[in-house]
Design brief:
The chain is of the alpha/beta class. The protein folds into two domains: 194 residues, Alpha-Beta Complex (2-enoyl-CoA Hydratase, Chain A, domain 1); 51 residues. It contains ten helices and ten strands. The strands form two sheets. It has a six-stranded mixed beta sheet, sandwiched between helices. Helix 1 links the parallel strand 2 and strand 3. Helix 1 packs parallel to helix 3 and helix 8 packs antiparallel against helix 9. Pfam families: ECH_1. GO terms for molecular function: isomerase activity; lyase activity. Belongs to the enoyl-CoA hydratase/isomerase family.
Length: 254
C-alpha cells in the first residue's frame, strides 16, 4: 500500500491504524481520508485481523479538518469532500470487526467524529475532546448528531454541540463519552490489551453481535431484531469455530 498520511501494522490479530500527519496535529485532508479507507478495507479483508485500534501519531488523535484546505474550496469541491468524508464514516460504522479508538491527545471536530464512529473509545486522561464546529461557523458530520446523543443523551449532546466546549478525557469517561480514561503512558497498552482479548473470541459471533447492535440502535422493530437474533445464533452455533470455541472455553474454566 502506498500510504502518505496513515501508518498501519499488525500485532497478535489486531490491526493498528495510526493517523500520521503529526506536524499539523493529524489534521484531516482528502489524502488522509483516502488512505484511511484503503487501510480499513485491507484490515476488513484480512482474516487474521480480528479487531482494529485507531490512534494518532504525536500529540493528537486528530485536530479535525485541515482548515487550510477548506478556505478556498468552491461549494462543489466542498460537497465532494464532505461526501467522501461521510463515505469513510459509513464504512467505519458498518465495519464488521470491532474498532477501538485510542485517543492520545486532541480529538477535535471531525477527529472526534472519527472516534465516535468506533465501537469503543479509550482516552488519555488529559486528552482534549470537543466538537467546536459552531465556533467556526460549520456543522458536524460523520453521523455525530446521532452517535453523540446515543452516548451521552440529548441534553448533554446539545450542551457540547451548542457551546463547542472541550472536555478532558477523564470528564469524557465520567459522562460516558468514552469507555475509559487512563494515563497517557498506559493508553496503547490498555487499548491493545482490550483488542487482543476481543481478537481471541469467535469472529462470526462478534460480527453477528455487532450487526445486531446496529439494528437495535436503528429503526428496526423489536420483533425484527429478535427474529434476527435467532438467525444469528443459529449461524454461529452451526459453524466449525463453535466446537473449537466450546472446547477452549471449557479448558479455561478448569
Amino acid at each position: 500500500m502506498n500510504l502518505e498520511c496513515i501508518g498501519y501494522e499488525k500485532r497478535k490479530g489486531v490491526g493498528i491504524i495510526t493517523l500520521n500527519r503529526p506536524q499539523v496535529l493529524n489534521a484531516m485532508n482528502r489524502r488522509l481520508w483516502l488512505d484511511f479507507q484503503t487501510v480499513l478495507a485491507e484490515a476488513g479483508a484480512d482474516p487474521d485481523i480480528r479487531a482494529v485500534v485507531i490512534t494518532g501519531e504525536g500529540r493528537a488523535f486528530s485536530s479535525g479538518a485541515d482548515l487550510k484546505d477548506s478556505r478556498n474550496r468552491s461549494q462543489t469541491d466542498y460537497r465532494a469532500y464532505l461526501e467522501e468524508l461521510q463515505q469513510a464514516s459509513r464504512r467505519l460504522i458498518r465495519f464488521d470487526k470491532p474498532v477501538i479508538a485510542a485517543i492520545n491527545g486532541y480529538a477535535i471536530g471531525s477527529g472526534f467524529e472519527l472516534a465516535l464512529a468506533c465501537d469503543i473509545r479509550i482516552a488519555a486522561e488529559n486528552a482534549r475532546i470537543g466538537l467546536p464546529e459552531a465556533k467556526v461557523a460549520s456543522s458536524v458530520t460523520g453521523g455525530a448528531l446521532r452517535l453523540l446523543q446515543d452516548l451521552v443523551g440529548p441534553g448533554k449532546a446539545r450542551e457540547l454541540l451548542f457551546t463547542g466546549d472541550f472536555i478532558e478525557g477523564s470528564e469524557a469517561a465520567r459522562i460516558g463519552l468514552v469507555n475509559l480514561a487512563v494515563p497517557l503512558e498506559q493508553l496503547m497498552g490498555t487499548a491493545l490489551s482490550m483488542a487482543e482479548k476481543i481478537a481471541q473470541n469467535a469472529p462470526l459471533s462478534i460480527k453477528m453481535i455487532k450487526k445486531g447492535l446496529h439494528m437495535a440502535q436503528g429503526e428496526t422493530s423489536m420483533e425484527a431484531l429478535m427474529d434476527f437474533e435467532i438467525e444469528a445464533c443459529l449461524a454461529c452455533v452451526s459453524a466449525e469455530e463453535r466446537r473449537v470455541s466450546l472446547d477452549t472455553f471449557e479448558t479455561r474454566k478448569k
